[in-house]
Specification:
Number of helices: 5
Order of helices and strands: EEHHHEEEHEHEE
Largest sheet: 8 strands, mixed
CATH topology: Aminopeptidase
Oligomer: single chain
Number of domains: 1
């Protein structure tokens, strides 16, 4: 596992350093069950009830299943966006899994509504891009975004992501696929 290094969220709203904190299988399981108390009993950071909400439970279930099949994947998949100064979990971010055979990783992130519009999505994206650039086996970074998510589309464009196609996601419906070379951030 590559340790996360602090990153300034940037912009005038939130110059707080954040990092992505990786979770373990017991935390994934507890969050998938909607049990934030059980998750906090084994989590490296304190999580709010929002982490166990119905919207995010499917993500935790999928990541738990991945970590169970391949324990090393826990160092790649969704973790916690942790605000270092406030000592608070503000969202989730990570890759959908380790790099595939072609060297591609897909990233995902979501910020708790109570912390949106403060630069946390940008900070998480930058942390994920920086890690991808540091990993020799990663060549391409992908993000898939709902066509009506203008904020995420605009953010991805600022980092050079280019549209490469579309896909249908079981949970989210139609998504536009964007990719960028990982070496751009090294």
């Amino acid at each position: 596992m590559i340790p996360s290094e602090p990153l300034s969220a940037g912009g005038p709203r939130s110059p707080r350093p954040v990092r992505i904190v990786h979770l373990t299988l017991p935390v994934f399981r507890a969050l998938a069950d909607g049990d934030v108390a059980a998750a906090n009993a084994v989590s490296p950071v304190t999580l709010s009830g929002y982490f166990a909400n119905d919207e995010w439970r499917g993500t935790w279930r999928r990541r738990g299943e991945q970590a169970e099949r391949d324990p090393a994947s826990a160092d790649w998949v969704t973790g916690v966006i942790w605000d270092e100064q406030q000592q608070v979990a503000v969202g989730r971010a990570g890759y959908h899994g380790p790099p595939d055979e072609a060297g591609m990783v897909e990233i995902g992130y979501a910020v708790d509504p109570a912390y949106r519009r403060r630069g946390y999505a940008r900070a998480a994206l930058e942390a994920l891009l920086r890690r991808a650039a540091q990993e020799p086996m990663v060549t391409t970074v992908r993000v898939s975004i709902s066509p009506d998510n203008d904020a995420s589309t605009a953010l991805a464009a600022q980092y050079g992501f280019a549209e490469t196609g579309e896909q249908w996601d079981e949970d989210d419906g139609l998504e536009i696929i964007y990719e960028v070379a990982a070496s751009r951030f090294g």
